[in-house]
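Lab notes, practical 5.
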Amino acid sequence: MNAPPLPQSLASLKPIPIVKGLPIFGHTFALLKDSHGWGTRMNEKYGDIFRYSAFFQDWVGLAGPEAAEFLALDKDNCLSAEHAYRPFFGHLAVTSVLLMDFEEHRKHRQALNPSFKSAVMKTYLEQMHRIFSKSLPQLAIDGTFLFYPAIKQLTLDVATSTFLGIDDHKECAPINKALTDLFDSALAIVRLPLPGTKLRKGLKAKEYLVDMLRSQIPERKARDGQDLFTRLCQSEGADGNGFSDDDIIGHLLSFWLAGHDTLASSLTTLVYLLGKNPEWQQKLRNEIMALKVEQGQPSIDDLKELELCDYAFKETLRHVSPAAHTPRRALKDIAYNGYVIPKGTIVSVGLRHIHEDEKYWPEPKNFDPMRFAPENIPADRHQFAWAPYGGGAHKCIGMIFAQIQAKVFLLNLLPNYRITIPENYELDLQLVPTPRPKDGLPVTFVSLQK
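Output from the prediction step:
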């Protein structure tokens, strides 16, 4: 990879150190194997900024909360989320706020916000509670099981129920299978739809899902419904005249994909950390059992009372963020901390490096939810020292959805079961496309009912 000549206006700035990799593939395989370890080694050798190639793209790696703030706020509108994500996720959805920038993004985001407000979450909460209360006891029946594939199925069931309003298992099965195939194609190394490849399988799945959703749009526009699909069909849309069919399908697919996979990743890490820290299991259990939930159905106000559960989930996201990086593509040559970031490169910040920085997080390897108690948060902690949901205009629209689902999961699990994991077990993660245990995380739910 050769550095391009600097423009005259930036000639006084330094070129970024280039980390050489394999021909053509660059550092792709090293990142797939252990992206965090590789990034740590690069930071130690090259500092807080370096250039490299991977996944057939040129990248600039940055470090620190200031870098995360620089990317998220993008005060000069010179960093594109669309052009960073499209090479990897562009085939997943026709339309997505992930693949939009600036004014277009603002208009679509504004039109989508009502579907993710706290008041709307009441219906979603009911579906989450119904699925978890029914399914978690079934997981406990057979003793030790692999938690990640089990919770991924449950979060997919929740997403299909809340986003599509479909609960029938037979109807859900082929839909969920297609959605899984589509997501798995996101980081296929072979980016040609050749027979037998993940990309080809994903595109076939997308064709099935798009046809299925498009056929239902007229009915959804005419009927009442609280699911996200129906809400999008009846929304005023970004231009005030309603979303187009492509917009509806694209937004729904992107939320559907992200809404289950990131939760599966986070809940897996949460269960692992609680298994390693049984004293925190008991603290959360005591908090939940002190909550007097009427008729067994929690409300949004009930969940707000679960402060320790909130701290524990935030600490989980600090340990392992489901979105490990926040890439943006430079639309022009950009000055940053005395260096020039060349136009066309993808700029990325590793969140885990920030979340493990001892400057902000003493003893960062420890699981300590009380870091997030208001009285323990230093007044001078950088606002991007904890950024699992991103920030700025692209801050995760599903943040409240994720927080509610995590609490509903804990509310259904901890009063009834004790989480146990194998003695001396350590989590070994595959970090892309989202963090997941390589062995699935063996776990046992031990009944507490007499």
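Observations recorded by the TA: The chain has one domain: 8-447. Residues 8-447 form a domain with the Cytochrome p450 fold (CATH 1.10.630.10).
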